[in-house]
């Protein structure tokens, strides 16, 4: 029933890895942001948790960037086994429009918003001073919500799933 018809090429192994990496990175970002939030809340009593919270926050941001990179690679290389790529790209589309196609719908747009917010957060983090605990806590909650939406409405849904 799930046999590939004659003449239809099989998915490249790297693309299946990229999709799994993207989906895993989204899930990892949620976990990292929740850890950062909990660490910052608990840091009021145990000050050593501040560092764990900041490191977890940075790792969550990096995870979002990895997911965005994986999705962009799937678009650029025309990996149509993913529903999102199939719905929003074409083999005749030029490279600039393929990259722009990454954020043409809700899933990619949320990923772009998450990455943009993560860039802002990382740039602002150095200047937060005494407010670092609150900044990381609130921003972690916000980005965990964005990541949760991305985990539910994933752009890495495979046609065969």
Total count of strands: 0
Name the poorly predicted regions.
none
Mean pLDDT: 91
The percentage of residues in β strands lies in under 5%
Largest sheet: none
- For the record, the count of structural domains works out to 1
Count every helix, treating DSSP H or I runs of 4 or more residues as helices.
6
Q: Structural class of the secondary elements? A: mainly alpha
Shape: elongated
* Order of helix and strand elements from N to C terminus: HHHHHH
The helical percent reads 55-70%
Rg, rounded, reads: 18 Å
**Between the first and last Cα atoms, what is the distance in angstroms?**
13 Å
Structure commentary:
The chain has one domain (13-152). By secondary structure, the protein is mainly alpha-helical. The mean pLDDT is 91. α1 (13-42) runs antiparallel to α2, α2 (49-76) packs parallel to α6 (132-152) and α5 runs antiparallel to α6 (132-152). The chain is built from six helices and no strands. Helices cover 70% and strands 0% of the residues. The chain has helices at residues 13-42, 49-76, 83-88, 95-101, 106-125, 132-152.
């Amino acid at each position: 029933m799930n046999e590939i018809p004659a003449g239809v090429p099989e998915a490249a192994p790297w693309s299946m890895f990229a999709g799994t990496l993207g989906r895993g990175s989204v899930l990892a970002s949620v976990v990292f942001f929740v850890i950062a939030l909990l660490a910052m809340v608990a840091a009021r009593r145990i000050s050593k948790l501040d560092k764990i919270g900041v490191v977890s926050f940075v790792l969550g941001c990096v995870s979002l960037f990895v997911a965005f990179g994986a999705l962009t690679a799937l678009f650029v290389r025309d990996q149509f086994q993913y529903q999102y790529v199939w719905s929003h790209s074409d083999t005749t589309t030029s490279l600039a429009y393929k990259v722009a196609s990454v954020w043409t719908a809700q899933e990619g747009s949320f990923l772009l918003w998450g990455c943009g917010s993560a860039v802002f957060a990382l740039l602002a983090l150095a200047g937060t001073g005494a407010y670092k605990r609150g900044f990381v806590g609130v921003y972690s909650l916000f980005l965990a919500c964005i990541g949760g939406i991305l985990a539910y409405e994933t752009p890495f849904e495979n046609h065969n799933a």
